[in-house]
Each structure stands twice: as C-alpha cells, then as structure tokens.
Write a structure and sequence with these properties.
Layout (H helix, E strand, L loop, with lengths): L2 H14 L9 H13 L6 H22 L9 H8 L2 H19 L6 E3 H11 L3 H10 L7 E3 H11 L20
Antiparallel strand pairs: 1-2
Length: 178
C-alpha cells in the first residue's frame, strides 16, 4: 500500500468525519450527502436521490465490512482497511463515483462544468486551489468542462492502494506536483 494512497484516504476520512469526533458514523454520511446535493440546486431530483443513496451505500459497506462490535462507528484504521481493499469496497466506490459525476452533469451531456465541479468538491470540503488543480489535471475542454466519466474514473483511482502520481494526489496537502 502506497503512502500516497494512505494520505488520500486520510484526507477523505477527515472530510467525511463531519462532526470531527475521530470516527465515521451514519450521521456524518447524512450530513455530507445533504451538503453535496445542496451544492447543486439545479440538479435533477433523480441525480440528487442517487447521490444520497450512494452515500448510504458507502456507509453500509463500511458498517458491513468493519463494524464487528456493532458500535455504529468506524475509526481511521478500520476505514483504511476497507476502502483501500478493492475486493471489499469496489461496488460502493463505483456507485459513489458514478453518482457524484452524474450529479455534476447538469446538462445531461456527459460533461461537468468547472463551477459545478468546484461547488461539489467544495461541499465535500476540499481546498479551492487543489480543486482547480484537479480540474486542470482532468484536461478541460475549451469551454471549461471535463467528461463526467473522467471524473468518475479519477474518484476510483483516488482509492487505489497501489497508485501514485494520479490526478487525485492534487487534493492532498498543498497543490501537489506530478
């Protein structure tokens, strides 16, 4: 498992721990889902519902795989053991990645505009310079859009335990260089 992968999931853990108590709990995922769908008020209701459901699936996968004592919370160590194990998390990750990218595709044309991308990534909690650096890594079109499929693939890569030098590394710390 690469250090870069651990750094990436540490950041997501900290962002998803909405109440800051050091554990992920169902309420954290509910709060994050609300923030994300509120970031794009013009999105289709079906896309919003799919995003909320994807956050639920994400939590359910963690709970099913990791919450052996049934206390309803996941520590960072437990989180890393699941999300960096593709065989345990791929289905939930695919659902999450597709739902987030689809939520950002307001025109239904397979692309996400920079303002929508920024709104969604800001709602999750990423830093603005890092968000813009990631968007640039995805190779925006002349009219400042990125393919939703490229973003979804980038989300999947973000959780890959063996990858480094990927666009998602731009989200960790200062604006990273590749």
């Amino acid at each position: 498992m690469r250090k870069e992968a651990i750094d990436r999931v540490r950041l997501v853990f900290e962002l998803f721990d909405v109440d800051g108590n050091g554990y992920l709990e169902p309420n954290d995922f509910d709060l994050m889902a609300d923030r994300v769908v509120q970031a794009v008020p013009d999105a289709e209701e079906d896309a919003k519902a799919a995003m909320v459901a994807a956050f639920g699936t994400y939590w359910s996968a963690l709970e099913r795989e990791l919450d052996a004592n049934g206390d309803g919370r996941i520590s960072f160590e437990e989180y890393t053991a699941c999300v960096l194990a593709p065989e345990r998390f791929d289905e939930a990750l695919d659902d999450f990645a597709t739902s987030l990218a689809d939520l950002g595709d307001l025109a239904g044309d397979g692309f996400v505009t920079r303002p929508v991308f920024v709104a969604l990534m800001t709602a999750i909690g990423f830093q603005l310079p890092n968000i813009h650096a990631l968007f640039e890594e995805f190779g925006p079109t002349d009219d400042d859009r990125v393919p939703a499929a490229t973003w979804a693939a980038g989300i999947r890569d973000y959780y890959a335990p063996d990858k480094a030098g990927i666009p998602g590394d731009r989200l960790v710390g200062g604006v990273a260089t590749v």
